[in-house]
Amino acid sequence: VSRDDPKQAVKVLVTGAAGQIGYAIVAMIARGQMLGPDQPVVLHMLDLPRAADALNGVRMELIDAALPLLRGVVATSDEAEAFKGVNVAILIGGWPRKEGMKRKDLIVKNVPIYKSQASALQQHAAPNCKVLVVANPANTNALVLKEFAGGIPAKNITCLTRLDHNRALGQVAEKLNVPVGDVKNAIIWGNHSSTQFPDASHATVRTELGERPVKELVADEKWLREEFVSTVQQRGAAVIKARKLSSSLSAASAACDHIRDWVLGTPKGTWVSMGVCSDGSYGIPEGTFFSFPVTCDKGEWSIVQGLQIDDFARSKMEASASELKEEKAVAINIL
Ligand code: LMR
Hints:
Its EC number is 1.1.1.37. The protein is an alpha/beta fold. The protein has helices at residues 20-30, 52-64, 79-83, 107-124, 138-148, 162-176, 214-218, 221-243, 249-264, 311-334, and strands at residues 10-15, 41-46, 70-76, 88-91, 130-133, 157-159, 183-184, 187-189, 197-199, 204-207, 210-213, 272-277, 289-297, 300-303. Helix 1 (20-30) crosses helix 9. The longest helix has 24 residues, at 311-334. The chain is 42% helix and 19% strand. It starts with 9 loop residues before the first strand and ends with a helix. It is built from ten helices and 14 strands. The site of (2S)-2-hydroxybutanedioic acid has 10 residues, from helix 8. Residues 97, 103, 136, 163, 236-237, 239, 246-247, 251 line the site of (2S)-2-hydroxybutanedioic acid.
């Protein structure tokens, strides 16, 4: 703790830190984009032994960037050292999707990794550690963490659908030719997969005449139900096709948004999408890791209640819930 900054540094773990998302996110975290401009951080970076040189290079660059909020860097391939005492864990490590694969094709490779990370979390992380799973299949990896990291409360384990949420805001902003910061309250329901349901029926745009519903401004029901939905569902694949690599800067940015809103709170009147353990809200089976609209306050998320769900939305949500049930069965089979 330095003279002019009484705030204790927060320890943030990034797994897969030598990868593309890792490279983008560590700079964002160390610049205060995740925990705020006055919050010092210590970065714990984990990657596989074969990436040790690359990881050390990232560590060197972080030092070279002379970032005032960065109070320490641990770069290691040892899980125990990486997870030790961390307050926030961003779990990116795992096999990435390549062109032609579905996200759930990664279950066989990534679910066993998440079982082992569950025990590292339970044994070494701070007991109140907030966990965000980014690696695919994100919802099912989060479920595996919950099952095998008994010491970490289920409410502290989440998965990333903020990327899809931000993609939805981006599509609406492009369609209406408005600044994306004026669009809010889109919803991603379900799995971070092509069965997710991007829902703009409650979204609004800030205009000179106050907030107006997106569905009124777009006035194209077909676009909202078809093109908008499939563009957001398929966006990850479209980026992979274009870059030959999966989304990285947008994934890193979304992960920062997710943790920032969770820790520092959502603005009044705004909700965001997070993959969380269902409490049965909206008829989604309890214990399913499902993306819901949430608001956050004092470090806790709560699912937005009482939204109208029409038959179209209901059938989309059920399809995603049943895909998650199938993924769970496959995961159990593997483990
Ligand atoms: C994404 O949504 O971009 C990531 O989940 C990568 C992928 O496989 O689509």
